[in-house]
Amino acid sequence: MNQLVRCIPVAALAIAALALAHGGGAHYKGTVKAVGDKQLSIETEEKEDVTVLFDEKTKFEKESGAATAGDLAIGARVVIHTAKAEGAGPARATVVKIGSAPAQKVEAGGPTLSLSVTEDGFEPGKLTVKKGEPVKLVVTRKTDKTCAKELVIDDPPVRAELPLNEAVTVAFTPRKSGQLKYGCGMGKMVGGVIVVE
After folding, report:
1. What span, in angstroms and rounded, lies between the C-alpha atoms of 162 and 145?
2. Domains observed in the chain
3. How far is CA 3 from CA 6, 7, 8, 17, 119, in A?
4. Least enclosed by CB within 10 Å: which of 3, 67, 74, 188?
């Protein structure tokens, strides 16, 4: 009985050390939806949109060893360990483990389109793409005088945080002809149209 009593504190210390080694915060597993210079948005396996911040202290790993933020790709599977939350806002990633194969393959060869957020809204307000052809949108928010601090597209579902003066790449493949409305996270009050031919 005495040995059991002595083992309990040791086991508690081991569990605490393991939690601190991974940041002591939340853990997320999902698919990369958008990557900015200092943040990463994923869709979790529970279909929740999560944005985490990363910095020079964040450790990136792949199956083959060390990695960098540059190894993150839209559609890649990731497991993210975060630091214990300090107030409101996105958590900070301590470890990002990048899967070896993307969850969704984004075919090469499609157009790369630029989109800016200015005081006048999203510019240009109308983009034209082809059905079934992969598209990469590079979105840069150039002003803080707007509600458009994220990009939302309903179908296919896209939601990406837009940090000020940072280019964020969003990739998707339109599957239906017609018009895709895109805009801010406030019901697309500020937005535009993607025409799918």
Report:
1. 13
2. 25-102 (2.40.50.320), 112-196 (2.60.40.420)
3. 5, 6, 9, 21, 68
4. 3
